[in-house]
Amino acid sequence: MTSLEKDPAGGTTTATRPILEARNVSLSFGSVRALRDVDVTVAAGEITALVGDNGAGKSTLVRCFSGVHKPQAGEILLDGEPVSFSTPEAARAAGIETVHQNLALVEDLTVWQNLFLNRELTRFGMLDRKRMRTEAQKMVAELAVNVPEVTARVRRLSGGQRQAVSICRAAGFSSRLVIMDEPTAALGVQETARVEQLILKLRDEGHAVLLISHNFDQVMRLSQQVWVMRAGRCVAGRRTDATTGQEIVGLITGAIPG
Ligand SMILES: Nc1ncnc2c1ncn2[C@@H]1O[C@H](COP(=O)(O)OP(=O)(O)OP(=O)(O)O)[C@@H](O)[C@H]1O
Question: So what's the pLDDT on residue 1?
Fold first, then answer.
């Protein structure tokens, strides 16, 4: 898909070629049908928002993208090729990084140690601490991340600074898609603004960003594409500039059928 197309619900869908696609993805947990024939696309250089009420299936879908869950039906395509990730490491190796809601950083390690956690650099079989520190400094500087020192322990950082380190970690290592599940839910106003700047920066650098958010203002401000989920189905896709917060709320609740 290289140009704007109309979706059956009347909205427009992805404007550029998707790097990631879910096609007819279904997944049940026992009798709970968490995902039913979900079609979603994510394009490079865009922020794609995934919205829906509690339990709509958003986290389950992104966990399929990040190698935590395996769809029971349908397929996931990366650059148009079907992929099947059996672990989060496999998804990461393919360039899909996730910034978790619960900030998966190790408190007692430094910023640079967290940035290189599970992908430590070695030299002659030994940890190359000096190079990791230098590289971490570069990563932080490139994203203009507001952290005191890469040698500071994460325990000392504020919520916003921690989230910035998580995003920095996800943006590094040549990731192509960064998935963010409620990245600002736990943050204050100023910290939220800083993290939003970082998200925009990622997009402007050409990363694809998939953003789960319950904050409609944020979705309308940051995203270019919105997918709406309801009770396990993807009920609508809209270009953000062709919709309104009111329409999105209606699609989420079902007041607008989608
Ligand atoms: N590991 C699991 N085992 C059993 N049921 C699950 C599991 N994960 C999710 N579910 C169920 O699947 C459905 C979709 O949940 P999911 O977490 O994907 O929703 P969500 O849209 O991310 O919600 P929220 O906004 O509250 O995070 C829910 O009914 C949930 O209870």
Answer: 39
Query: In which band, very low, low, confident or very high, does the pLDDT at 174 lie, cut at 50, 70 and 90?
Result: low
Q: Is the dihedral of CA 117, 82, 50, 30 positive or negative?
A: negative
Q: How far is the CA of 218 from the centre of ligand 1 (A)?
A: 22
Kindly report the protein residue whose alpha carbon is nearest to atom 12 of ligand 1: 34
Instruction: Sketch out the chain's domains with CATH numbers.
Output: 18-104+175-253 (3.40.50.300)
Which DSSP state fits 78? E
Cα 211 to Cα 219: distance, rounded to the nearest angstrom:
8
CA 59 to ligand 1 centroid distance, Å:
7
Please give the structure tokens belonging to residue 244: 């309104």
Ligand 1 touching residue 31 (CB < 6 A):
no
pLDDT value of residue 8: 46
Model pTM score:
0.86
